[in-house]
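Recall the central idea of this unit: under ordinary conditions, the amino acid sequence of a chain determines the structure it adopts. In this exercise we apply that idea directly, starting from the sequence alone.
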Amino acid sequence: MNETPVETLREKANAEALARIVGAEPVLTGVAAAGDVVPGMTPTTILTSGAPLEWPEYTGGQRRAILYGAVYEGLAGTVEDAEAKLDRGEIQVRATQQHDCIGSVAGIYTASMPVFVVRDDAHGNVAFCNFYEGKSRFRLNYGSYDREVADGLRWLETTMAPVLAECLAAGPVPLKPLMARALRLGDELHSRNTAATLLLQRELTPRLFDLAVTAEWRTRVEEVMDFFQANDYAFLRLGMAAAKATADAAHGVEHSSLITGMAINCREFAIRVSGLGDEWFRGGHPELQGRFFDGFTEADAEWIGGESCVTETVGLGGMAQACAPSLMNYQGGSFEAMLANNEAMYSITLSEHPEYRIPAFDFRGTPVGIDLHAVVSTGRTPLIDGGLAGRSGGQIGAGVLRPRIDAFTAAAAAYAERHPASVVF
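Accordingly, the structure predicted from this sequence is:
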């Protein structure tokens, strides 16, 4: 019999998981209704962000968003009717992560809503994300719902989705080269997506022109192009799907201590670890340092979910914050602080991304491969960029989120229990 130190096994497993992250090739392959392509999605299923909870555990704006989703989908006539049906189990709530999806803020998915379909060509797995709703701060994923919100969602379903689906019938769109270039043009691909949105629009423009052969299609195409022009965040959901597909490719490597998921719901922040199966390790909500829109303060903020921090797990977002100095105008802080915060992330990651690079660091690769043990040993948690939701609905600001250490220490304890100091063969 031979004993192999768990540290040796962990190093080998982490090398494998890291290779999967940096070797992933996310490609946009299609657009379809969630009910047609998302595994396990049914007409009465609503998906929401964060580690899974039972329906009675959802509170505040996240609970309202779920109810509004049921009304939008026609599963209930009123919020009260939706609540009664959810209580009886006639409508089911599931976590996005249980269905290969990723959710922005509350992350509401219903069966009729369109989703981007992103495949990692290197490993074959697929991830999904629904569409950005538009620049209004009142959106369903931020816990708001009225006629304007409903009309915007319906436009995505009946106009934008069919147009993009037809565009993609001409062939897939590789996302990784586009994302790497966007970093060089001032995005960090979480809280700033301006360059990526413009690059995507440029990629799709010839296909859009090819569609505009009749008056009806020309009108649709013009509306979609106007949406891209008006919404710098249109690419965010594609970046999230690409990051989800990338992180999923690295999940499930026995003995790996790489973080392959971070998620927020109304009750907690949670992480998953490549070598610890499908369990989510939960802790308190992050600390936030933000800039609030006029008339709002931190007292008005509410946690209603969020999984866009998946971008940080693959070397984007807060891991590339130094790429995007214009974020100072959006979420506060100074460029000097952004540089220092970003540089500190190298101490909790295993490597530098070979293709995602930071001009301000002489094109050094972004820190990638968040290591559970490095987080716990340093006491330094991942830097997350993000939007801030309000108690009365809508977005009220943006800022930097600092997860507390408790979710990481819980995962470290589970890792130690599952993987003793040495393994006998």
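The domain at 26-238 is CATH 3.90.1710.10 (Enterococcus faecalis V583 fold).
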